[in-house]
Design goal:
By secondary structure, the chain is mainly alpha-helical. It has one domain. It has a two-stranded antiparallel ribbon with strand order 1-2.
Length: about 80
């Protein structure tokens, strides 16, 4: 059984072997001493991205709610006719 890890929006599937190769390349490029700083920076960047995404979603949700409320205010009240 081959396990794959989806890589988000890119649509790539990365298995354990590919993941190890990627990690080895990163280790060679940046060295062991810089990896903690790199991981810390990546974590902060992901946190900021998530924060921005959440703020954008909240802003969009608030705007949609505001528009729906405006539409509801503009709808004429239903008046029932005389009952027979």
């Amino acid at each position: 059984m081959h396990m794959t890890l989806p890589l988000g929006f890119m649509g790539w599937n990365v298995g354990p072997t590919e993941l190890l190769v990627i990690l080895a390349i990163i280790l060679v490029l940046f060295g062991g001493k810089k990896l903690p700083d790199l991981a810390r920076s990546l974590g902060r960047s992901l946190g900021e991205f998530k924060k921005g995404k959440d703020e954008g979603e909240k802003l969009a949700s608030d705007k949609v709610k505001e528009i729906v409320d405006d539409i509801k205010k503009e709808e004429p009240e239903k008046v029932e006719g005389p009952k027979a």
